[in-house]
Amino acid sequence: MSETTTATRSLQGRVVSNKMNHTVTVLIERQIQHAVYGKILRRSTKLHAHDESGDCREGDLVRIVECRPLSKTKHHRVVEVLQRASE
Questions:
Q1: pLDDT at position 35, please?
Q2: 18-25 long-range contacts, CB within 8 A, separation 24+
Q3: Residuewise pLDDT in 10s, the chain (87 residues)
Q4: Which end of the chain has fewer surrounding CB within 10 Å, N or C?
Q5: Can you tell me the distance from the alpha carbon of 14 to that of 59, in angstroms, rounded to the nearest whole number?
Q6: Within 10 A of 3 (CB to CB), how many other CB atoms are there?
Q7: CA 58, 69, 82, 56 torsion: positive or negative?
Q8: CB < 8 Å & 24+ apart, contacts of 1-9
Q9: Per-residue pLDDT at 1
Q10: What is the reported pLDDT for 86?
Q11: Residue 38's pLDDT is what?
Q12: Cα distance between residue 74 and residue 29, in whole Å
């Protein structure tokens, strides 16, 4: 049997809410170019991520990866905190 390697999608974003138990809301921002006009547009997505240790705070920069569905809206987990929010 050969090993199956799964390509996990890694994203980074800011924690905008940590009010739930073991869950944080992460804002992912990206820039795209308009197809016709060429203008750079800013788009954002909010994702729920599993934070087992509960050490993420609002404003932290975190890296998240896809995983199996953990609840109805939660299918990412926090891998590491890249930068702490200044107090």
A1: 97
A2: 18/51, 18/56, 18/57, 18/58, 20/48, 21/54, 22/50, 22/51, 22/52, 22/54, 23/48, 23/49, 23/50, 23/51, 23/74, 24/48, 24/49, 24/51, 24/56, 24/62, 24/78, 25/49
A3: 455 555 679 999 999 999 999 999 999 999 999 999 999 999 999 999 999 999 999 999 999 999 999 999 999 999 999 999 887
A4: N
A5: 6
A6: 4
A7: positive
A8: 8/65, 8/66, 8/67, 9/65, 9/66
A9: 47
A10: 83
A11: 97
A12: 18
pLDDT at position 4, please?
A: 54
Q: What pLDDT score was predicted for residue 85?
A: 87
Amino acid letter, residue 61: L
Residue at 50: amino acid letter: H
SS (H, E, C) 3-40: CCCCCCCEEEEEEEEEEECCEEEEEEEEEEECCCCCCE
The amino acid occupying position 85 is A
Half-sphere exposure of 79 (CA within 13 A, CB side): 13
